[in-house]
Amino acid sequence: MQTPKSDFSFVETMLMQGVGFSAIMDSARMGLFDSLEQGPLTAAAVAGKLGLEEEPTEALLELLAGMQLVVSGPTGYANSLVAGEHLVSTSPFYQGKALELQSRFNDFVTLNLGRLLRGESDMREEVDDGWGSEDSMTGTLQHARLGGLQDTLALVRTLPDLNESGMLCDIGGNHGELSMSLLENYPGMTGELLDLPHVAEAVGGRIEKRELGGRLKPVGMDLRLERLGADRYDLALASHVLYGFVDDLEGVARMLYESLKPGGWFVSHHLNVAGDLDPNYTAVVQFITRVSGYKSHFIGKDHLEGALLKAGFTDILSCPAGKRRKGLLMAGRKA
Ligand SMILES: C[S@@+](CC[C@H](N)C(=O)[O-])C[C@H]1O[C@@H](n2cnc3c(N)ncnc32)[C@H](O)[C@@H]1O
């Protein structure tokens, strides 16, 4: 009998990882990681707390231990550092809703792949419709808190001569955390959060809850159809938004330049082509992005820098953001 020359096991690994991910999601949904925060617990104790059978619960805990989300010790199972930080619902870095949000995108692609490939389904419309739901906003914010948001805030704090009593705009601001954190940091600053009309309407409650209603105005607009105005802002922010406009970065850069006051800064945060991401992750993200009707989720440093320079921006600076340099931050100033 013939034997194969190549190793097919990586495809089988991917097949099995689907079950592993479902186990993580279900464990988070049923509060398994929350339960384990209360100390090492035996499989019987976990099963008792969650109303499960002991034997399959032990199998689940062993699976999670194999994935390094759970640590097994002499007195039972406990959360690993990564599970304690990202899968316990009271943690500031909880990712439950972020994972649910991405799972919904992935499920849509999986279920509609044939239609997407034949051009019979418009996922961009579906995605845009979803951005204003409470769950999507919370999921988007949870994902931002993995590090990209903190690093963007840190970069803004270093911008030379930023007018701290000026006006900012948070383009595609969604949950509003970037602009709200900046306004809390700069008490003299005011701002506008620009997003699709249904998203701008939905974020109003979050702004009121932070008592920033008098300083941050949500403005509904579709950047594909409307322009930003001229000489209006001291700081323009676009976090994970420019990928929607990657086929006309020069045109967008010109609009951003025009919208700033002289000396004003533009800051972009987007996925980093040169980041240290798992190539399988990058390939699937890019596939989902393209079948959804966007050109690319990643924007190269040279591509954006070239567009900003052509539009007239000066003092360009850039640095990676987040773990594994997943994001790229780039800032430029209007002369
Ligand atoms: C991936 S989310 C980024 C949210 C947030 N800036 C962050 O980094 O966490 C993209 C946001 O851009 C908004 N958006 C997408 N297309 C837009 C358009 N044509 N005009 C205005 N906003 C748009 C979406 O509604 C969504 O809120």
Automatic annotation (TrEMBL):
Residues 16-87 form the O-methyltransferase dimerisation domain. It comes from the Bacteria. InterPro entries: COMT_dimerisation, SAM-dependent_MTases_sf, WH-like_DNA-bd_sf, WH_DNA-bd_sf. It holds the Pfam family Dimerisation. Gene3D superfamilies: Vaccinia Virus protein VP39, Winged helix-like DNA-binding domain superfamily/Winged helix DNA-binding domain. This is Hydroxyindole O-methyltransferase.
